[in-house]
Specification:
The structure holds 2 protein chains of 2 kinds.
Chain A lengths: L1 H13 L9 H11 L5 H13 L7 H10 L2 H15 L14 H13 L11 H14 L8 H7 L15 E4 L2 E4 L9
Antiparallel strand pairs in A: 1-2
Chain B lengths: L8 H17 L3 H16 L5 H12 L5 H44 L6 H26 L3 H15 L5 H20 L4 H5 L1
Helix pairs in contact in B: 1-2, 1-4, 3-4, 6-7
The chains are: A mainly alpha, B mainly alpha.
C-alpha cells in the first residue's frame, strides 16, 4: 500500500508538466478513479485545502496520502461503531445518527480501553494509550471501498482494523459483531 | 550555475529559517511565493538578484512537478550548495505539509458527521470552478494556434469519452509536441526559451 502510494505519487510528479495545478486531473484520475484512495468528495476537499494552505498546490497529495493509508480506517470505523451502539440495533448506518467529534474521541478511547468481545474491562491509562496507538498502527486501508458512503453502506467490506486484544470486536446493542480478519497488510 | 559561496552551518540554518517563513506565508500559489522571495532575499537581504529568480523560473518551467518547489531548490543551491538546497526545500514544504496533515486528520473525523455533508458538497462545486479557472489560465498561456488547440481538444475527447489513462495522454501529447511543433514553428531558439 505504502509502496503503491509512493510509486503512483512519483508517476504524478514526473508527469506534472506545467506545474502542480496542471497535474490535478491526473491526480484525480489516479486517486479517485484508479485506486479508490479517496472519494470524489475527498478529492474536492483535498484540492480546496491545497489552495487554502500556503505553499504548492501539490501538497494536496499529503491529504490524499493520509486519506489512503493514514489512520482513517480506525477513526472512521470506530465512529461508525459508536453510532451503531447508539442506534439500538440499527444496522450500521452512520448517516442516521448524530455523532459529534467529542463523543467519537471518547468512544475511540473507551474502545482502546476495553477488550473486544468480552465485557468492557478497564485497563490503566498507560496500557490504554499503548493499545490506542497500537490499534492505530495496525490499522490499514482495505481496497474496494472508497469514501464515507461506502463505509456506511457496507461495513463488513471496509473493516477498520486488524483484530487484536484491544480492538477485537464491536459491541453494538447488546450483541457482539466480530470484525472480519484482515489477512495481510501488504497490498 | 555555481553556489555563490561556501555554505556555513549558521547561514544554512538561516536559509532554512527564511524559507520556513516563506513557506508558511506563501498563500496563493507561485505568485505569492515569488513575491516573498523577492522581498526577503532580493530586496531586504540582497543575497540574490532579480535575474537569479528569473533564471530559476526559466529553468524549472521545463521540468515536471511543482514549479515553486523547484524554484526554491534552485535558489537554495545557489545560496548554500547541496545542503542549502535540501534545507531550503524541506523548510519551504514543511509548514504546508504539516498544516495539510492537520486538516486531513480533522476532515477524517469531521467527514463522519452527517451535518457536514452539505459543506463538502459546497466544496466540490468550488473545486470545479477552481479547476475551470486553472484550465482557462493554462489554456490562455499555452494554446497558441490550431495545433496546440487540437491537442487540447483531442485530450478532452480521449480522456472523457474513451477513458484513456491521463498519464498516457500526457506522454503522447508530449511526443506529438516534440515531433510536430518544431516543424510548425521553426526550431525554438535558446533566447526564446530563456525569454
Amino acid at each position: 500500500m505504502i509502496l503503491d502510494l509512493f510509486a503512483r505519487s512519483v508517476l504524478i510528479s514526473l508527469l506534472a508538466f506545467g506545474g502542480g495545478q496542471a497535474a490535478l486531473p491526473l491526480i484525480e484520475r489516479i486517486a479517485v478513479g484508479e485506486t479508490g484512495w479517496a472519494s470524489p468528495q475527498d478529492f474536492a476537499t483535498a484540492v480546496a485545502f491545497g489552495y487554502v494552505t500556503p505553499g504548492p498546490v501539490l501538497i494536496t497529495m499529503t491529504f490524499l496520502g493520509y486519506r489512503a493509508a493514514g489512520l482513517r480506517r480506525c477513526v472512521g470505523g470506530h465512529a461508525r461503531n459508536f453510532s451503531d451502539a447508539v442506534g439500538a440495533g440499527r444496522g450500521g448506518c452512520a448517516n442516521t445518527q448524530k455523532v459529534d467529534a467529542a463523543s467519537v474521541v471518547a468512544k475511540l478511547w473507551a474502545r482502546s480501553c476495553s477488550s473486544g468481545g468480552g465485557p468492557a474491562r478497564s485497563y490503566g491509562a498507560t496500557s490504554c494509550a499503548a493499545c490506542f496507538l497500537r490499534g492505530l498502527a495496525v490499522c490499514r486501508r482495505r481496497s474496494g471501498c472508497s469514501g464515507v458512503g461506502a463505509v456506511d453502506e457496507n461495513p463488513s467490506h471496509c473493516a477498520p482494523c486488524r483484530r487484536n486484544d484491544c480492538w477485537g470486536g464491536v459491541r453494538a446493542s447488546g450483541q457482539v459483531k466480530s470484525l472480519p480478519h484482515i489477512p495481510t497488510l501488504s497490498h | 550555475m555555481e553556489p555563490t559561496s561556501q555554505p556555513a552551518i549558521g547561514s544554512t540554518l538561516m536559509l532554512g529559517h527564511i524559507f520556513l517563513r516563506i513557506g508558511a506565508l506563501a498563500f496563493g500559489g507561485i505568485g505569492a511565493a515569488l513575491a516573498l522571495i523577492d522581498r526577503e532575499l532580493v530586496r531586504k537581504r540582497q543575497w540574490l538578484t532579480a535575474e537569479d529568480v528569473t533564471e530559476a523560473l526559466t529553468y524549472t518551467k521545463l521540468l515536471p512537478g511543482s514549479t515553486v518547489v523547484q524554484v526554491v531548490s534552485y535558489l537554495g543551491y545557489k545560496l548554500g550548495g547541496w545542503s542549502g538546497s535540501a534545507i531550503a526545500t524541506a523548510a519551504f514544504v514543511l509548514p504546508s505539509a504539516l498544516l495539510m496533515l492537520a486538516l486531513a486528520a480533522a476532515y477524517v473525523v469531521a467527514s463522519e458527521l452527517p451535518a457536514l455533508y452539505p459543506a463538502v458538497n459546497g466544496l466540490t462545486a468550488v473545486v470545479v470552478g477552481i479547476l475551470l479557472a486553472t484550465t482557462y489560465r493554462l489554456g490562455k498561456a499555452n494554446i497558441k494556434g490550431y495545433f496546440t488547440f487540437g491537442i487540447a481538444l483531442a485530450s478532452v475527447i480521449v480522456g472523457a469519452v474513451f477513458d484513456i489513462h491521463a498519464a498516457l495522454i500526457v506522454i503522447v501529447a508530449g511526443l506529438l509536441g516534440v515531433c510536430f511543433l518544431p516543424m510548425l514553428q521553426g526550431r525554438p531558439k535558446l533566447q526564446d526559451v530563456k525569454r
